[in-house]
Amino acid sequence: MPPPSPIGLPAASASWAWVRRFAGPLSLDAVANAIGCPVDEVDSALTVLSAAAGARDRTALVARYALAGHLLPRDFGAEAGPGPDPRDRLILRMLARGLSGATIADEVGVTLQTAARYQVAALARMGCTEVHQAVGLACLTGLVRASDVGVATDAVRRPEAQGDELLRGLLAPVRLALMSGRAMVVAPRREQPALAALLAGREAGPGSRILAVARPGVHWPETVKALAAGRRDHGEVVAVLTRGEADHPALSTPPGVPVATHQAQLARLVGSTLPATVIVSPGGLEIAREAWRKARHQRPYDLMLALDAHVPDIAARAGRHEYCPPARATVWLTSTPRLVSTDRTRTEGADLYATGPICAALTPRQAADAGRMRDLRIAAAPLPATTGSRTHLHRLVLDLAAAHGSTRVVVLCSSTTEARRLEREITAAAGAESVQAVVLARRHAQPETMAQFTGGGERLRVLLTRGPLPPGLDPDLLVQATDQHPAADTAASLEAALTPSGPGTRPLLAVAPVGGQSHAWTLLAALAGAAAALDPDLRAALRTARDNLPDDGWQGLEFTLPGLTAESRQRARAVCAWAPTTWDEEMTRTRDRNTAIHHRALPATVSPSGRRLDTWLARHRTPAAAHTTLPAPRRSPMPARPTGSRTA
To answer: Which residues pair with 183 in a beta bridge?
Structure first.
């Protein structure tokens, strides 16, 4: 008895016998002579089987049974083996679709005679003499897939995963927003690969072309793997990187996903109209753009997925015609749609004018409730005032770990030099027997350091690093000791620390030193601003505190160690409440409120987060307008600065 057949494939014993004969190298006349029956009967059997299987010809019929796993290499009379040239794969995929020689020549961009030579060479490298043989063998080896033959994927393979309920809930608003050609979704970074694969499967059909833009970093392998798993049966899956990125050991791709570093390579792998999924880095967008520009059939991509849309390289390149091939629709995925730099003088993040408003969001609170992320607690700790550098930071780290029973502590430092100095100070103060302090200078080059940090044991482990954290460290305590630009690094580190190691993981305690030096308040502003950029619920709570209690600040801030005065605690709460804003917004509110109360702006007034009004007024003071009936003529083509009243 033959095995159960997929939907649409005849499963009778006679059908299996006919398909095995059609898969061989013999012509129909030779098949008729071999079994001793008229040629008309062989033609009739082929016609009936093709109609029952939904195949257009002999090649498609053999390919369908090969994709279903019911044919073996011996049935083809040849050895199964992939061709060494990527061009062979493209030729075989087009032959599987039943394209004519002229269409193949146009797709590859060569003459009809050259395309015929390519076809002969591809068949020879497969060890075949007939097209249906080569296509059938290519189906067995994965060179040709269901979408290339033009059949439904679920007819030859099991249906693709539908995604979990948490992510499926985002699809309806995205589908509605894509009616205008663009949609923006807020989701944690660790959820974006699965969400991108789900959107690609739902919003684009099996024969579509997908362009996914992702940052070449710690999440790159996960992104490629998720999209390849969801799109492998819908056409070719290719990663596009620059030559320098392709040589990086951390930017690995799963088996079966080739890497293109030149537009000619990309054109040979995906053609210009065949179903494909192209995963490209921001630097590789120009390669994809050049391949599209030189194609004879300049078909736009059906859907573009931009992951980490707040990253400047992606926000500035994705969707722009000078860097990126066109797409009919674009979905922007980001975990931090709005970021404020640590000195709060400018805004960064996704450009809402380009991406459109947020149409769907999966907040960290929702993800934490579902067990996909950890809860977050923001706290402040007193740092004694010192001259020069922060020499007491090592003592603060040890006191925090002892007070809260932490065994894994991550300290975000401003530089590698500061991290190494802090490592020596922590080891000298606590002793090498009770604490293990290490520096993660290059996160990709030190897997053994990460393994030591995440390992078991009761000894305190302190990891000191600069820049974004790699995921999977699962610290108990995160100490913010850097206020460098931009705040995107702080947000990325905070999000990586929220990745749970398992059920029951306790909330992450994120701490910033305050009260010791003037710059220490910017550490708290950076931490609160990064958390607010990640969590819309927290951002709304801080906005409510600013509007209703501008002087009292955010009451949700914790204090981990004693030593802060009442004045410092009030200022810390105010700093958190105003962290997601800019200095101009805070000082404008301070000036307007001061003027409403005192009928003039008092320069000595201090804003809720502790900034003096006279310092801000000195930077924004403009000359008084001339008392004339006509405005003064401009002396330069630049627009005139807005005028305002001079303040004392």
So the answer is: 331
* The CA-based dihedral angle spanning residues 314, 315, 321, 323, taken in that order and rounded to the nearest 10 degrees: -30
**What integer pLDDT is reported at residue 351 of this predicted model?**
83
Q: Hey, what are 543's tokens? A: 């906005």
Cβ proximity of 253 and 303 under 8 Å: no
User: Dihedral of the CA atoms 214, 218, 222, 228 (nearest 10)?
Assistant: 40
> CA–CA separation, 36 vs 30, rounded Å?
10
Cα separation, 487 vs 284, in Å, equals: 25
Residue 553 CA to residue 524 CA, distance in Å, equals 13
Asked whether 513 and 485 are in contact (CB, 8 A), the reply is no
For 635, other C-beta atoms within 10 Å of its C-beta total: 7
- Strand bridging mode 347-349 / 338-340: antiparallel
Tell me which residue of 313, 350, 317 sits closest to 334, measured CA to CA: 350
Report the residue count for the chain: 648
High-pLDDT (> 70) share of the chain, %:
87
Question: Residue 603: what residue type?
Answer: P
Angle at 17 (CA atoms; ends 7, 144), nearest 5 degrees:
55
For 360-388, what is the mean pLDDT?
82
- What distance in Å separates the CA atoms of residue 300 and residue 296, rounded to the nearest whole number? 12
d(CA 58, CA 377): 65
Do 311 and 287 contact (CB within 8 A), yes or no? no
Average pLDDT, whole number, for the chain? 82
User: What span, in angstroms and rounded, lies between the C-alpha atoms of 467 and 413?
Assistant: 8
Listed residue (437, 420, 429) closest to 396, CA to CA: 429
Tokens of 100: 């004519």
